[in-house]
Amino acid sequence: MLQVNELSGGYGSGLIVRGVSFSVKKGELFGILGPNGSGKTTLLNMISGLTKPESGTIFVKEKQISTYTPKELARVVAVLPQMTSSQFAYTVKETVSLGRYAHQTGFFKSWTDKDETAVQEAMNQTGTSSFAEKPLSALSGGERQRVFLAQALAQEPEILLLDEPTNHLDLSYQKELLDLLKKMTADGLTVISIFHDLNLSSLYCDRLLLMDKGQIHTIGQPADIMIEQHIHDVYDTDVQKQPHPEVPKPQMSLLPEMSLQAEVDINEDLIERHSDYIAIRPPVPLKSLSSGVIGAGWGWRSAFVNRHVDKNYNMDNFEEEAAAYFLKNGFDLHETVGMMTAVKIEDAAWRKEAQEDVSVFVVATAGVGNAVDVTQPRSSWKENLTPGTINIWVFANGKLSEEAFVQGLMTATEAKVKALADAGVQDPETGTIATGTSTDSMLIAATQRGAYQQFAGSITPLGIAIGRAVYESVTESLQKTARRKGLL
Question: How many domains would you assign to the chain?
């Protein structure tokens, strides 16, 4: 649909764009990224025919752009510029109707039903029909942006060029606009758009072109562009990549420059013991990965609660009941990891372990109820879901990589299994050594201050500390539970 070959150009005597080549297929949503001054708008202006290139060629539908008359080009290519003047007294509908100029044989002397239909459809698509008779000057910046998009769509183009189309739009209209453009590309429209928002471009675009100093730095699918080093090289800004929670598109988070932060030590002085729960509220939020009833997954959490429930606790709506309980006790659900256990709170055990430049503090509640050997075949237990009897919190006083978080979970699980084996805990159904209980929960949380820990495997300082502290605390809690029940 569009082919650009060795394109160079700019304004006056200077070249802003230098030697750019790429192609865009029919039905593609193609994004152009780059910092201010990288040549994005100049490139778009040359593609639209507004600016004549110094050298290179542009082909639209396999025909060189220089051979099109302005009206012929307007029937194929529509443009929504970054800033559009609104200093004229047209209504919204009149403004949108200007988009039909390319299809007229005279200045609105041959207005047809097809023209009217195209204008109405464009206004409906952009949500501007409700103020069709209002003067353009009475609209907000976001509303005017939608009107000019409707004007471009009224041209019924095959290629739509957009310069930062989400400028002046609030969050809901950004989504509506980009959802609309994505739908239209599925119907065959080719969209080429400049973006400043890296995450929006990654989320919606099929391919991206990253420009730097007038040249192509990288071109490819979002996963090829959204690489931390690429973004740092072009924008001179530190970012961190993470996956979108719902779709397979990478997202970038800015990393602000932080002043030196004092280290924080999570230890037994922070433990709050109550009759039916144990809690820790650290002085700073901790980066956490957990399987709690409340606050599961990744997050930054400011409170950690382990609640005792009766061993016969069994509710279909246990998540709602647990949420109500934690709220009643003053915990913010958005900032809390909440777990439940059938083990008595007095049977909780904890251990501080230090290795080289890192330390961990582990809290465990452990009992032998619902013991399971996960390696053995069995019938499903979902219909008899009961509270977990082994809950483990691992607090790391250090800065952990995501790899260390996951390895920490593995190391802690290995230590738990070893503690059960040494205690001789068996699965009552199979008679084999248990690997856990039916609904165990685990937490890894880190202060993200202090020495950096890239790994937490079993032979690393962090892994050794986790292994020792988990083993000792689980073993001690098992012994407390057994003594209370008269089994020791």
Answer: 2
Distance in angstroms (rounded) separating the CA atoms of residues 193 and 79: 10
CA 203 to CA 224: how far, in whole Å?
Answer: 13
Q: Give the up-direction half-sphere exposure of residue 205: CA atoms within 13 A in the CB hemisphere.
A: 32
Low-confidence ranges of the chain (pLDDT < 70): 13, 82-88, 105-109, 259-260, 315, 379-388, 487-488
Q: What is the DSSP string of 299-329?
A: EEESEEEEEE--TT---TTHHHHHHHHHHHT
pLDDT digits (tens, 9 = 90+) for 168-177: 778 888 888 8
**3-state DSSP call for residue 407?**
helix
CA–CA distance, 368 with 361 (Å, rounded to integer):
23
Question: CATH number for the domain including 361?
Answer: 3.60.70
- Output the CA–CA distances (angstroms, integers) from residue 364 to 245, 274, 330, 390, 437, in the order listed: 30, 15, 23, 7, 13
Q: Are residues 372 and 309 in the same domain?
A: yes
- 117-165: per-residue pLDDT in tens? 989 998 998 889 999 889 888 887 778 888 888 988 888 899 999 998 8
State the number of CA atoms in the 13 A half-sphere of 460 facing the CB.
21
Contact 237, 265 (CB under 8 A): no
Helix/strand/coil for 127: coil
Tell which residue, 445, 388, 394, has the closest CA to residue 415: 394
What's the predicted TM-score (pTM) here? 0.82
